[in-house]
Design brief:
Layout (H helix, E strand, L loop, with lengths): L6 H4 L3 H37 L3 H17 L1 H11 L1 H19 L13 H16 L2 H12 L2 H56 L27 H5 L2 H31 L4 H57 L5 H16 L2 H12 L3 H48 L16
Helix pairs in contact: 2-3, 2-7, 2-8, 3-6, 3-14, 4-5, 4-7, 4-14, 5-6, 5-7, 5-8, 7-8, 7-14, 8-11, 8-13, 10-11, 10-13, 10-14, 11-12, 11-13, 11-14, 13-14
Length: 431
């Protein structure tokens, strides 16, 4: 559309455009986590069909996490340079492609030359690269379409798509596998992903002025200038380093729930398979509800406490409660109290998502994509370590001790908020 604005577009209410943008960003977040987690749902069938060991399948799972973390900041740089509309569209098409190719693994040509495990490793690694720009680009989009007083709640809503995608994938994808088999099920997921990417490209714009509207309180960041990018300045920023460290600790806790909570309920606490699935869904839904709540509270208190004070209040309160609830909930209580405490621990932890992202976006300025990518890279490194360290620690001190250690890590995430300086100049102002 370029800079040409039609009369029809100019009449579109601002709120309607913003609601549409949030709905699509939420949809991209949900679909992304759906595509990520369906591999674990299809895993048993794939392992059985090709005789893949648990260790081999574990390396396949890790391939995505490694590339996703490595390419997070570069993906944010692409979003800052070329805009989130194009980057998210191309990333979505790539994610659709490699999701579909997963269903062709072991066929006449895919896997015949490299082997099934090697093919899956390549596919998942490339899938991670395509997915990496997602949240940094969504953060960039939020900065362009919403005033600072609304950023925390918007980002929290967008990130809520992650636990929702994780909650619906076991039921929906298992049903697809039952009806079509695992190969065709990946194909249907790929089609859905591509269609959503197409709708995004049709609707989204990097700058609301392309729709003929000016949003009060928003100065849409223009593209960053060409030339050598000063990564050293970014990586040396005090606030961004603290946010990254805190997000690392926060995600260490979160990924325990994504990878080990079903096992913990079933194998450690002796729950039935059906009960375990029900309780995991309940936990994910708790996260889905409490994530946007944290962003809303932070924005609601900003006029009284300032944006930094409100974000710190929500984060410190949520993370402290999360650590205490995790410690108590993993201390051998009866089943129902255990589920309630652990669900609330996960929910309170997620309340800090909006404040973390809002502060990273504010710190990054016109480089909001890169700043979000650096912070999210740190978070996903915590996510990579957590699934591995948790059972190792449990081997020495038991699962109770391993989860108690995680509660200590959550407290470290809370502590960083006392060292982040409010109202510091953004990186974007100097680059």
């Amino acid at each position: 559309m370029g800079n040409t604005v039609s009369k029809t577009q100019a009449k579109v209410p601002i709120v309607r455009l913003q609601v549409g943008a949030v709905a699509l960003m939420f949809g991209l977040s949900t679909m992304s986590y759906f595509d990520r987690t369906i591999m674990s749902i299809a895993g048993p069938e794939i392992m059985k069909d090709f005789g893949i060991s648990e260790t081999g399948m574990g390396t396949v799972f890790s391939a995505f996490l490694i590339s996703y973390a490595i390419f997070m900041a570069p993906g944010g740089r692409l979003a800052d340079r070329f805009g989130p509309r194009k980057v998210l569209f191309l990333g979505g098409m790539g994610a659709a492609l490699f999701t579909g190719l997963t269903g062709l693994t072991g066929g006449a040509w895919l896997g015949a030359s490299f082997g099934v495990v090697a093919s899956l490793l390549i596919i998942r690694f490339l899938f991670g690269i395509c997915t990496a720009p997602l949240y940094p680009a969504l953060g960039r989009m939020t900065a362009a379409w919403f005033p600072a007083a609304q950023v925390a709640r918007v980002q929290a809503i967008v990130i809520t798509g992650a636990p929702l995608g994780g909650a619906i994938s076991p039921v929906m994808f298992a049903a697809l596998i039952g009806a079509f088999g695992w190969r065709w099920s990946f194909g249907w997921a790929a089609i859905a992903t591509a269609l959503l990417g197409g709708v995004w490209y049709w609707y989204a714009r990097d700058d609301p002025r392309e729709y003929g509207v000016e949003i009060p309180g928003v100065s849409a960041p223009g593209p960053v200038r060409e030339g050598r990018f000063p990564w050293g300045t970014l990586l040396g920023d005090r606030n961004l380093l603290l946010l990254t460290a805190g997000y690392f600790c926060m995600n260490y806790f979160q990924y325990i729930f994504y990878y080990w909570i079903y096992y913990y309920f079933g194998e450690i606490r002796g729950m039935s398979r059906g009960d375990s699935a029900t309780y995991v869904t309940f936990l994910m839904l708790t996260i889905t509800v409490m994530t946007p709540l944290g962003g809303w509270v932070a924005d609601a208190f900003s006029p009284r406490l300032g944006s930094h004070g409100a974000r710190r209040l929500v984060s410190v309160t949520g993370l402290s409660l999360s650590a205490v609830l995790l410690y108590v909930g993993s201390s051998g209580l009866d089943i129902v109290p255990t589920v309630v405490f652990l669900s609330l621990a996960a929910g309170c932890n997620s309340m800090a998502e909006g404040p973390f992202w809002a502060t990273a976006i504010e710190t990054g300025g016109k480089n909001a994509g890169v700043a979000g990518g650096i912070m999210n890279c740190g978070g996903n490194i915590g996510g990579i370590l957590s699934p591995t360290l948790t059972p190792i620690i449990a081997g020495y001190v038991g699962w109770e001790g391993s989860l108690h250690f995680a509660s200590f890590v959550v407290m470290l995430s809370m502590v960083v908020w006392f060292f982040i300086k409010p109202n510091s100049a953004s990186i974007g102002a100097t680059l």
